[in-house]
Specification:
The chain is α+β, with helices and mostly antiparallel strands. It has a single domain, classed as 2-Layer Sandwich (Alpha-Beta Plaits). It is built from three helices and four strands, in the order βαβαβαβ. A four-stranded antiparallel sheet has the order 2-3-1-4.
Amino acid sequence: MPYVDGFIVAVRKDRIDEYKKLATLAGQVWKEHGALSYVEALADDVPYGELTSFPRAVQQQEDETVIFSFITYPSREARDEINGKVMKDERLKGHMDDAPFDGKRMVYGGFQSIVEM
């Protein structure tokens, strides 16, 4: 079963088009280096919860929305190898200097698949 990296970030609403361009480039880079899939999804039905929620997790501000993303890989080992190549890929250099999201509020992690249908 595939290995999954998951992410959520807060993105300013007036920078969504910019984020989409960066995500499209990033997706191309990840796929070229061996990722099985790359998905970026814009919040549509994401309520602000009393105790926990996606907006709370990223400390979403009034002028922001949430993006949920995931990348799949053949295995954890493949993920580590692919991410190493991605981090060295010149096409992504410099894009994080003025990224359309606050990386300090990003929530991310790697997950082993336990059910796939």
